[in-house]
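Me: I'm a chemist; would you kindly supply a protein sequence with its structure tokens?

Assistant:
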Amino acid sequence: MINPLWLRSFCTLVEIGHFTRTAERLHMTQSGVSQHIHKLEALLAAPLLLREGKQFTLTEAGERLYREAREILLSLSNLEQQIGQDPSHEGLVRVMSPGSVGLKLYPHLLALQQQYPKLVIDYRFAPNLDVESAIAEHRVDIGFMTTASAREEVSCQAIATEPLLLVTPVAVTDPSWQALQQLGFIDHPDGSHHAGLLLGANYPAYQHSQLLAQKGFCNQISLILQPVSLGLGFTVLPAHAVAAFGQPEQIKTHRLANPVSETLYLALRRNRVAPQRVETVLSEAQKWL
């Protein structure tokens, strides 16, 4: 493999046309420049220069090498600059979170992308376990979770809390235990978990969501409240998901005697230095959480 330093000495010599001045330009000795040329000639098994006293001309091999070497050195220089650059508002940033957090954050991150069109936001909605795996496997730059990770590769930091809310059809004014039993439960992927936290803290008769009449299930965060708005049942959801529902006049939110909130954790790959664009998105996200 050709040493790039030899190529730099050769190209500089060709462009300056003088060994002494080449050595001065490169902060080398003249003999050092000559050694680089001799090593190139030995490696390529071809003479590169026709020496005439202190002057020289290029052989055909020397001319070909100069054309190719100049492009190689330019590419190396560009590569060094590109790798060294770390723009704050350019490039891809991959984010993953549970749905409620995503409904809150995604519009704000899109607004950030509008402000900086070279910034590309890839936002995925996913349950905690998927977020955890994606962070550990370097498939995501920023993760948000509602449970702390136990994996060694994932660093978790509590950054916010989000209230859990009991949501019923708008006609329900007194969400007694009897009223909830009559309504039935609209389940969702985190339904049992959320119901256990909020209902368990406020209704002594509550044991498990499975004991409630199941009136439906929806795994699309933006649609979970649709059956509730139609009077088909009640559910328990984080506040961001409730706030994002497009027909708030058709549902009623109840804040119970014993409020319950979920902790939101920022999940990052441990021992990984985040690029500036990731820091930009992270800073914007934390503003809204």
About this structure: The chain has three domains: 4-84, 91-161+263-288, 162-261.
